[in-house]
Task: inverse folding
């Protein structure tokens, strides 16, 4: 249904602009795993507008039709180069919106959203408009129901970019005209709907006099019958799009390890380390590796201040990364609970991978405990490194899993940390670690080797340690170190002769 007749308070002339904001609620940004610095937008055609009581087709052959309940603001007077403090004066009212999208067509859009979000009926609005004069723009609520169950519930006081900022920003380049609609973003909870589902969205001002409301905007999903032709892109889905559409891997019916593919990285962040290279690295010390890297100009590769939980521990693996940010109660409420970033990485780590945790050098709380460490061990992890503390230190030390930290601490995350994101560049103990870097640990500590250098550094370190072992034998035999360590020409000739070179 593409007609917008009957939307009380909305001009019926059509032909205006529908401008949608990509990310604007912190809850949604957390779900997506990224928080934008500035607002960004896309356009929807006016032909996508429909009114309450209508239907929306999930096209034949498509799988991932998703709803997004939103607050829509309607421009009442032209706005061009307006200031933030004056922007709300150009709004005539607000109403409920549903920014439907078909994830099956996102690859065809290349980011434009024209096909995935521009279909007939993909922008239901209404049923009534709340006058801007009645409300505080920071005191609105948006709720969404699917088949009578509340699935979205958030308020406009949480927005990353308030309404006035959006209007002022857009007016810098384009004139906002009467009747233009701005869709202001959706909170967490957006997910997939199927034919037969009924989606309702309501915007209200619960603290305003009379508690004005848009009323329930009702849309029923139906199955399309007309197949896509052979003259354009057809629906295509993969696990990445399923996770994006459903909200997480669990809701999409996928294994937990598919959560790693949120950014399209595939099943692994990096390929497993070559077995021969891993064996070479396991046979040499971090001291020797550090020297070989220093010769190449890499001086900040040692993860400072961390020590093995168990003496004699050696560790070699490929880095997976986890970043904590400093504790804030609002951020912890947003990202600290449920299947958070910390739990995700321990539940998805693969054999041969080392979890490296940026805890900002804060040892005053635990960053991993016995349950998560056990989970990593069960999944075949090559180890855990944190520049923070470890809880349940005695139990963790008894595991086969190599662990390196600043020491034990009994406190949990909520004291100093918020688990923020995984598989990004981090700084652990003063060293930058990228996903896929090679991590080596021993009694001296832990070193991060850029993946591209691992094979050649390993090979050189093996040669160096063979030479060092020969030198040690000469010292044990009574030789002085002058000229021997390092080898001068005379001693090197003797060494090479004995090695048959």
Result:
């Amino acid at each position: 249904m593409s007609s917008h007749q009957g939307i009380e308070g909305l001009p019926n002339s059509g032909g205006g602009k529908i401008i949608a904001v990509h990310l604007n609620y912190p809850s949604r940004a957390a779900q997506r795993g990224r928080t934008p610095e500035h607002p960004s937008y896309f356009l929807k055609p006016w032909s996508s507008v429909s009114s309450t009581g209508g239907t929306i087709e999930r096209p034949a052959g498509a799988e991932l039709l998703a709803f997004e309940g939103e607050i829509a603001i309607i421009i009442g007077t032209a706005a061009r180069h307006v200031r933030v403090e004056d922007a709300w004066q150009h709004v005539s009212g607000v109403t409920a919106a549903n920014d439907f999208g078909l994830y099956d067509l996102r690859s065809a859009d290349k980011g434009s959203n024209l096909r995935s979000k521009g279909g007939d009926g993909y922008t239901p609005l209404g049923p009534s408009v709340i006058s801007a004069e009645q409300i505080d723009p920071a005191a609105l609520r948006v709720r969404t129901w699917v088949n009578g169950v509340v699935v979205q519930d958030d308020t406009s006081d949480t927005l990353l970019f308030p309404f006035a900022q959006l209007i002022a920003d857009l007016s810098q380049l384009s004139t906002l005209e009467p009747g233009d609609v701005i869709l202001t973003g959706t909170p967490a909870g957006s997910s997939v709907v199927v034919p037969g589902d009924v989606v309702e969205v309501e915007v209200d001002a619960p603290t305003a006099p009379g508690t004005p409301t848009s009323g329930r905007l009702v849309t029923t999903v139906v199955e399309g019958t007309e197949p896509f032709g052979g003259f354009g892109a057809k629906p295509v889905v993969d696990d990445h799009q399923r996770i994006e559409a459903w909200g997480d891997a669990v809701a999409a019916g996928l294994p937990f390890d598919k959560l790693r593919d949120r950014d399209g990285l595939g099943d692994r962040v990096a390929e497993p380390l070559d077995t021969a290279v891993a064996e070479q690295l396991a046979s040499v010390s971090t001291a020797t590796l550090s020297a070989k890297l220093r010769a190449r100009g890499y001086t900040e590769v040692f993860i400072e201040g961390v020590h093995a939980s168990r003496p004699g521990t050696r560790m070699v693996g490929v880095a997976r990364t986890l970043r904590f940010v400093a504790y804030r109660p609002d951020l912890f409420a947003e990202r600290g609970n449920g299947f958070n970033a910390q739990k995700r990485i321990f539940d998805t780590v693969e054999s041969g991978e080392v979890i490296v945790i940026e805890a900002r050098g804060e040892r005053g709380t635990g960053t991993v405990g016995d349950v998560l460490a056990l989970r990593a061990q069960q999944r075949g992890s090559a180890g855990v490194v944190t520049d923070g503390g470890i809880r349940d230190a005695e139990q963790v030390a008894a595991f086969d899993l190599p662990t390196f930290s600043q020491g034990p601490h009994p406190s949990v995350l909520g004291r100093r940390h918020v688990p923020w994101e995984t598989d990004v560049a981090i700084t652990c103990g003063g060293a930058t670690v990228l996903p896929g870097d090679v991590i080596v640990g021993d009694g001296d500590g832990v070193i991060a080797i850029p993946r591209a250098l691992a094979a050649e550094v390993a090979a050189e370190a093996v040669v160096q340690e063979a030479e060092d072992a020969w030198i040690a034998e000469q010292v044990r035999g009574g030789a002085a170190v002058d000229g021997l360590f390092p080898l001068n020409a005379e001693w090197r000739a003797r060494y090479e002769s004995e090695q048959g070179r």
